[in-house]
Structure formats: C-alpha cells, structure tokens
C-alpha cells in the first residue's frame, strides 16, 4: 500500500497500523514488525555477493508476511505485502540490484532517443513458469490493463507519473465510459509491442522516473492468453491462478495462514538464485512473532517495545528507518451528525492537535517511531540532489503541532458552528495488538478534549473496502514511498485519485500538484509540492501520526537480501543461507 519505492528495506519490516503493507505502497498496518525492512547503508547493509562463500546444504528462509495478501494480480495489487511477494515471483523490464542500482531484467537493454521521449526496450529470451515465452506484448497488455478504468487499478496514475503519452487521457475516462471510447484512448497510449522482443514506450514529457517505475509491480508483465483463460476475477487469487517469470513461484497458498515460494527453474537467471524455498507465515501478533524468532522458527522479526532495552544492542539488531508515514483519515463524506462535525474546520483542527504523538509512540512503540507533522516523510529528495524535502520545508511542521488547550477551544467553536453536541465517532483500523493499543491511547487523549471514539478493528480487506466506500468516521492508514519523489505522497490526495479516501477536494491543491508534475525546474517543483502539503495540512482531513522507525532482529546466517527505500521492500533473488548448519 506498499506500498510505496520504499528504499532498500527488508528483513525487518515494521508493520504497524494495519498489517497491510505500505501500498508503497499503501501501508495501513501498524502491526508488521516482521523483520523484513532495514535501512540501506546502516548496520544491516548487505555486502556484495561473495562467490567463495560456503552455502548451507539447506537453502530455506522462514519469514513473516504479516497478513493475507489482498491480491497477486500485479495490475490491481495495492499493499506492501502484495508487492513484496510480487517482486519475488514476477519481474519487470528492469530490477534494482543489491547495490540499489537499476539493472536490465526482462529487458536485456534499452535505448533512449535524443529528445528523451522514446524508450526502446529489447527483451531477452525468457520464459513464464508454464513454458511460454515472455514477450513485449505481455508488457503492452499488462500496462494497458492497469490503465483501463474498468480494471479499477488504484495505481493507474503511475503511468502518467512515468510520463507515458496518452496515460493522462485514459485516466480522465471512467469505468462507465463506452468500450469504443476506452479502446480509442488506449490505442493512442505510448506503449507498443513492435514485435515479440521489442517494446516501444513514448513519453509526453521527459521523465527521470520511468526506468525506476519499470521495477514496480504495476509495470510487470501479464501473459494475456493465460489471463483470459481464467474466470473473470480469478487471476492472482491462488497459487494455481498465476504464472510466474521471476526468481520464485508460489507453490502453496494456505489463505490467512501461510504461503510457500520455491525456486523458479524457468527463470532466465536461475543460476543466481540460491534459496530453494521461502516459507511465509501470516502473524499479526508481535509477541507471537518475536517468540517464533527466538525459537528459531522465523529468521527475522521486529523487537516488541517491552524487549527493546534487552535486545536493541544485540549484535543481530538493526535500526530501521523508512520513508513511511502513518496518518488519520477524517471522512469528509461522513453521514449524520458525525459527518457534520467531520466537515467542520474547527473540529478537524482540534482532532489534529488534540493528541500527543510522542506519548503515543513512547507507550505503544517504546519511543522508536518519529512524530510526524508533515505528509512527506524524511528520506525523500527535495529541491536538489542530497537535499531532503522534510528538512527544507520545516515551516509546514508547525501547522498541526500539539496544543490540547487550543484543541478544547476549537471543540467548543465546532459545537457552536454545528449547533449540536459532539457525537461519538468510530475509529477504523486493521487487526493487531499494536493497532488496538494505539487506538486506546488515542481514545484517552481525545476524551480529554471532549471527543469520544469507539474502536472498530477489521481485517485488511474489509477495512480497505470500508475506506474506499467512505463507510467510516475516522480511520488509521499509512503510505510507503513507491519512488523517491514527493509526488509519491502528494499525488495521493488530488480530487480524482482513488487513494484520496477522505473526500478531500481542493482546486488549489490539485493545481499545485499538477503544476509541480509539469515543472522541470527542481527548486520550483519542490516548492509547489510544499505549497500543496501546506494546503492539505491546514485542511485537517489527513492527520500525520508518525514516521516509521524501530529495531529489528535478523539471524546472522541470512545473507544478501536486497533492501529498498522505495517500491517493494526487498528482493530475495540474491539471498542465501550460510552458517545456520
């Protein structure tokens, strides 16, 4: 959710609010301290592959996914744990390697025109797990499938972010548009399989993000013949409802319990893949996960707050920092008395400044998170190479700083505005012990300013549907960067974006984001995103809570897992086990 781009992270992922992956990625989970995310360049940075290393005879990795995937259909997948799996069983035109560099994958090479508006990708000889050849047509089909409004892909907008000609025009249509209108628009999209081995991509503007985005699951290929051989809606719903072109295949999928990956012998670079098996559990309880790690049944885990002092200095502990933000959605389309107050500016501002982020972090997470006051988290590039967006635009951090007394005054004004007493609200979140504990802290804090909330914990799929349909009052969610640019966060809340699950609609916000997308001057572009961020923070329908950070443990015999700051959290292509036996 998921994801995004999510920087080199792996082994130690910290799922928090809704165990669902940052969708870089949508991430609504505050539970997943599953040990799959680490910060690149920190203590857990992998070394370059060592050809002389001694491999254990048994190459099996045991991990926790956190919760059931919402979809393994790459055209519609949304959340980070979906992307983690897809990045290991499928492969795009390019792949990010151990050194965080973009390298050829399904494409063995590409050429860029002098005006930077045409990319020509030449595919290598590669096969799907069923023996079919991977073709340029598989990419054209998959990309246009995800673009088509009838598919309902929440990541449809990435194709315009990549600068692909015609993508914006297709996105302007709807699922209710006629087939003739949709087909006419899709025909004009700048994605064309010239022949089986040549994919031509035409851009409407130069884009520095296209190559990086080809490593993202929404840009992965789909075998059209196989896709259309299944019943509608079946693709990606089970192990035998998907074929694979990546390092691994899904051999078993016990829903809501476990997933097993095995090495894909048809993968073009199979000799590089050392792991024979990856066993994913789906555990929402952090203490259960931690105990399984201590007993040797899991190879990585987050450290629960009650064990932080004991384990944070352990030789296998890694400090985790991610480009992930957790926040509150306030439903501007809410119904009844609740909706009246949620649409009141004073009420929303009171909710935003009426709880203590640091206290919540200390109690629930042992002080390991970072209080969030901006939409774009630390670690995202700003106006120039080496500059951090969050460090550059610090003034925005003051808009929703805690002030309980001010919050109480605003609540009184809200009651006067609406002419009613404050009703009780529901707080929607995913299942998990940390989610519940976090909600209980917020309950107590908001009670002090005169706002009562009841907790509504739901499985990830149910919670997501409730938010998409605006059937909630207040909800907890989050997002991990899909790529290293402020747009991966700011694009989410334009009036026509499906991830805008608050009903936020502001012409000046849409204009600032649109102007930024078309601005080539990096300084002006960053300022436009900062302007948009200010508008959203002042509106108060999206309330940042904290930036992801914490500690994780990983067994020392687990080697060479590539970790990423944006997009899918990690890749197991180069991973191996050495020293366990």
Short descriptors:
single chain, 581 residues, alpha+beta, Dipeptide-binding Protein, domain 1, Dipeptide-binding Protein, domain 3, eight-stranded mixed beta sheet, four-stranded mixed beta sheet, 19 helices, 24 strands, 28% helix, globular, disordered N terminus
How many strands, what sense, and barrel or not for the largest sheet?
8 strands, mixed
Number of strands: 24
CATH superfamily of the domain at 322-549: Dipeptide-binding Protein, Domain 3
Number of helices: 19
Mean pLDDT level: 89
What is the fold named in CATH at topology level of the domain at 322-549? Dipeptide-binding Protein, domain 3
CATH class of the domain at 322-549: Alpha Beta
Rounded radius of gyration (Å): 23 Å
Low-confidence stretches: 1-24, 29-49
Based on the structure given, which CATH architecture of the domain at 322-549 is correct? Roll
Large-scale geometry: globular
Helix content: 25-40%
Structural class: alpha+beta
Between the first and last Cα atoms, what is the distance in angstroms?
A: 37 Å
- Strand residue content: 15-25%
Summarize the structure in words.
With 581 residues, this protein is of the alpha+beta class. It has 19 helices and 24 strands. A hairpin with a 2-residue loop joins strand 9 (191-195) and strand 10 (198-202). The two termini are 37 Å apart.
Brief write-up:
By secondary structure, this protein is of the alpha+beta class. Among the domains are: 91-245, Alpha-Beta Complex (Dipeptide-binding Protein, domain 1); 322-549, Roll (Dipeptide-binding Protein, domain 3), CATH 3.10.105.10.
